[in-house]
Amino acid sequence: MEIMTDHRFRKTGKYLRAFIIISLIGLALTILLIIGIFIYAKILGPPPLAVPQSTLYLSNDGTVIGESNNGEKRYWADITDISPHLTDATIAIEDKGFYEHHGFDYKRIGGAVLADLKAMAKVQGASTISQQYARNLFLEHEKTWKRKLLEAFYTIRLEMSYSKEQILEGYLNTIYYGNGAYGAQAASQYYFGKDASELSLGEAAMLAGIPKGPSSYSPLASPEKAEARQKRILAVMQENGFVTKKDANEALSEQLKLVGKHQHTITKTAPYFQDAVRAALKSQLNLDDRTIEMGGLRVFTTLDMNKQAVAEKTIGEMMAEDSEIQVGFVAMNPKNGYIEAMVGGKDYTESPFNRALQAIRQPGSTIKPLLYYAALEQGFTPSTTIRSEPTTFRFDDGRAEYSPRNYNSKYANGEITMAQALALSDNIYAVKTHLFLGEDALVNTVKDFGITTKMDKVPSLALGTSGLRVTELANAYSMLANGGKETSPVFITKVEDYKGDVIFDAQEKHAQVLKPELAFVVTHMMTGVFDTKLNGYASVTGATVIDQLTRPYAAKSGSTETDSWMAGFSPQLVAAVWTGYDHGKKIENVEEKSYAKNIWSHFMEEAQQGMAVKSFQPPKETVGVYVEPNSGKLATEDCPVKRLTYFAAGTEPTEYCTEHLPDHGGTKEPAKLPKEKTPWYKKIFPWTS
């Protein structure tokens, strides 16, 4: 028994000695590795504190239209020119052991690991200021082991080569504070309109909280979250002896005056467009703010410098400078959806809110071409007649009423054709058509036209009471202009990274969504807005600008009490214009009511100077016949007015107009007319007769 015990003891001792030897060897190798890393870092010397590259934005001809702000170069502030309150607040919330550690806070790392293991998720960070500075200077923000190891190596090099003051100064000048402000100086100027050296304790605590999430903790974007974070920072500063309880309470009660404007604003080409490009970089390429602003990208855009200049010039000339009315404008290439010009307001420096892309406003009668496309799908034609007269629609067993009106309360008090109803913008015809088709029809049809804004299933939807964006309307009209092919607004054609590698290349869409013959029929009906042959109880809605136009156009105007629209296209170019007040004020000034039409017509003419004049080409599945505009029937030699009108093949009228036939034998008796058959839809819905 003693022999066996002795044997086991010797065997255990053997394993223990082996373990100790292996551990010592491993420890020695680890020490050698660490020493080797430090020696290698020393040999490499101080890492260059390179300034991140600016991102360039280029127009469709390669002209540079914008360059991202290079905060480190333009706003660098010496550590002595940064308020001690901000340095203290930053150290307290980001790295309270900054002056004690040599780049890594091992205690904090251990705590973060335990917290992550407990939560089974990444819930706590442990990066020091030195590590964050290394990441900002030398690395991408990808979450990989390679990046973590490189970050650690660069941190060692920084700590070996630079003083704590230099590292802190560099960090405070490179960190992103949101709204394009890189560094403490730029952020202080933007948020509080003062230099970084002048920041109060309350301002510094507010500013120090932003880098954790610029979009979440900005006092301009999320005041409640920003104030909660400020309170947290002041509490941490008090815990670590940076401020007294009295100082913290006074800072919390301080009334901060936010500015939200860069002091050194640079006038740039198409600022609203460039904002839209940056938004597209985030949403389509999933790039973060720092990469967009400082990643050295080359962003090739769809902007046409000539069209943009024409748009800005036209808006400036057409709209009174002292008027508070605003504008949203988009020009688009219908073949590929490229946005070639964009204006989101009268003055970007006064209001960067992009009314062409962000505002949702009632489109009024500009929605009618989409409604009539839906009607054509259900058997209507440009010659389909409906009675235009004051009408009250009753719903819910008579408990609800809706009484739409025509402009100036003018009505045909008789039947009019769809072609004439569109040209005169007859509201009664539109609502009757909408109700006949069913309220779901238009809601579903606008989706086919690429409109994603939610539409309400109500009778007034036919008159454009559900809002949409200017870009959405321009895109919808582009699908009519290109024969029904899928499009979507495109701002960026290609993006290259700082090495010149292509990281994004736009793919054009060519899927056929609409029926080409019906898209053309609607397009041709929209040309009637400028054709006086369709004058009836009122003039065609484009009558005031007809004399300004020198080429074929299809268009539609629209108006509500608070919105004025004009949108339309030639075969090569689409433009949509909205004018109105930001807060829904009624447009009462007669001149202001005409802004949209005048901007549209002047832009379309000047922007296409030198371009070939093209007409709309009918597809094979259509038939063009001459009709008498009022009746929609085939015109005879005796009809005083004839208009070429296109129909989907097989739906063209077969009955001739008899209203203008001469008397027979000198008598005043009219020629006997064949008995007219009652159309099927009039039997079901008597109000159409």
TrEMBL record:
Localization (cell): Cell membrane
Residues in Penicillin-binding protein transpeptidase domain copies: 328-602
Gene3D superfamilies: Biosynthetic peptidoglycan transglycosylase-like (1.10.3810.10), DD-peptidase/beta-lactamase superfamily (3.40.710.10)
Record's keyword annotation contains Phosphoprotein: no
Primary site of residence: membrane
Transmembrane segments: 20-41
Recorded catalytic activity of this chain's protein: [GlcNAc-(1->4)-Mur2Ac(oyl-L-Ala-gamma-D-Glu-L-Lys-D-Ala-D-Ala)](n)-di-trans,octa-cis-undecaprenyl diphosphate + beta-D-GlcNAc-(1->4)-Mur2Ac(oyl-L-Ala-gamma-D-Glu-L-Lys-D-Ala-D-Ala)-di-trans,octa-cis-undecaprenyl diphosphate = [GlcNAc-(1->4)-Mur2Ac(oyl-L-Ala-gamma-D-Glu-L-Lys-D-Ala-D-Ala)](n+1)-di-trans,octa-cis-undecaprenyl diphosphate + di-trans,octa-cis-undecaprenyl diphosphate + H(+); Preferential cleavage: (Ac)2-L-Lys-D-Ala-|-D-Ala. Also transpeptidation of peptidyl-alanyl moieties that are N-acyl substituents of D-alanine
InterPro entries to which the protein is assigned, alphabetical: Beta-lactam/transpept-like (IPR012338), Glyco_trans_51 (IPR001264), Glycosyltr_51/Transpeptidase (IPR050396), Lysozyme-like_dom_sf (IPR023346), PBP_transglycosylase (IPR036950), PCN-bd_Tpept (IPR001460)
SUPFAM superfamilies with a match to the protein in the record: beta-lactamase/transpeptidase-like, Lysozyme-like
UniProt KW keywords: Carboxypeptidase, Cell membrane, Cell shape, Cell wall biogenesis/degradation, Glycosyltransferase, Hydrolase, Membrane, Multifunctional enzyme, Peptidoglycan synthesis, Protease, Transferase, Transmembrane, Transmembrane helix
Domain Glycosyl transferase family: 62-238
NCBIfam families (UniProt xref): PBP_1a_fam
Protein name in UniProt: 1A family penicillin-binding protein
